[in-house]
Predict the 3D structure of the following.
Amino acid sequence: MSFNELNWVEFLKKKAKRPKSVFAGIGDDCAVIRNRGKYYLVSSDLFIENVHFKLKDISFINIGMRAASRALSDIAACAGKPKFIIISAGIPSYVTSRQMKEIMKGIEETASKCCTSVIGGDTSRSDKLFLDVWVTGEAKRPILRKTAKTGDYIFVTGKLGKLAFNKPFMPRLKKSFYLAKNFKVNAMIDVSDGFIVDLYRILKESGRGAVIFKDMIPVTRGESDLYRGEDYELIFTVDKNEPKIELLKKKFYWAGYIKERRFGYYSKEGNFKKRVKLKGYFHF
Amino acid sequence: MSFNELNWVEFLKKKAKRPKSVFAGIGDDCAVIRNRGKYYLVSSDLFIENVHFKLKDISFINIGMRAASRALSDIAACAGKPKFIIISAGIPSYVTSRQMKEIMKGIEETASKCCTSVIGGDTSRSDKLFLDVWVTGEAKRPILRKTAKTGDYIFVTGKLGKLAFNKPFMPRLKKSFYLAKNFKVNAMIDVSDGFIVDLYRILKESGRGAVIFKDMIPVTRGESDLYRGEDYELIFTVDKNEPKIELLKKKFYWAGYIKERRFGYYSKEGNFKKRVKLKGYFHF
């Protein structure tokens, strides 16, 4: 038996003793540390050859860009502002120094676009190429997965299934900042493993159920896009008392409602109500 | 051509744009961030199957202990107090959930002995087992590699070559705290890649030379211990005006003097002066 990602997170959560200053820890996009009224965010993201990418499919500069964007997307998901990036790299003998410099260039270009910079790193020989990108950030009011409320509107920031696995993308830092500043957003997550699974993470952490309107969720190819990962759009839930809800419905995609836990996780398709099946993109 | 670790660090250093609040970055044991008069430390350490350990040589609990200790040793090297630990794990299919729990137990036991705790983590499938352990810390006065001064006494905290690669060890957090509090310590590093290479790192970062007294450096088996890594004793340099220098010579091992850069890196053996050869334990 081997761990899948949800299992491991569950296990870590049970084991980890969270000090009082740790506002959110395992099971959220970022670890959130409260210190003298400020919230500090820390997040990491693994990007591993033959797991998340194959060398024949992606250029080295795009490996760097994607590795950085994936980690920065976690900061976006918490409505944070990125501060510093630190990189651990496992480098196999078949990757040349020129190729490593390309990767570094990709990381730095993305860092610079997101107003942050690389301040340190560790490296080691390795059988396969991997990057572990760490980002620290700050937030006035971090938005977590575990704070969705019954009656919340569920939204998604953009069309799903658009993003090719080997192309760079920009983390939704501006969108999440705008949302956190102007609306009563209760919970948020980025779509890294598929809409269905990532919304499920909000439900699980918040102890809630949901109904989604499958026909209203914007997809590129069809229903399978709801189960595809690596989209990096944001799923967010908005309080039922939000006065500017119509503006949100115009600007983003309304996808459903948060329900009480006992309701379960359902999809409304026309006049039918179907139980949602979890079969998302797991890394295990 | 592939990177060796010193090359990669040099490369990162040239590329990384260090913001003003970053007090020390690439090329030191920790990244040091100054914020409102406080110093925050961040450090990471990779522990990779078939690079740093082989599964047949080490128990799973010891993998966890060693991975945590190696990262905490970087905080010790900066005279910091550890705060939080975050773990990224690459888990191959042949590692069972029971074995992962053993690893986690090892990490937590070490964390708890060092008065810190695990607050988060990321995980992914991987071909080989690896852990990337991140530690944050704080220091009133962080001690760096780059601040050795000409005339400094060079010391080492303990005997080299004692430590078996598959056994747990305790990071020298108490010793480094004691040293930083009571003496004019100018520079410090932990012995991860061998005394000769790690002292060289201090010299390189500080722009200095050194003479070491090879016969006075405590070793277990002989000269080869100076080139062996994974000791985790501390090398530290003490200002020539330190009034309590005799106390230090009693408590620790005096190993030489920091010299001006143009002096070079020499070893005094009896009446002979020999240029030190760099052939330490590199991960590349």
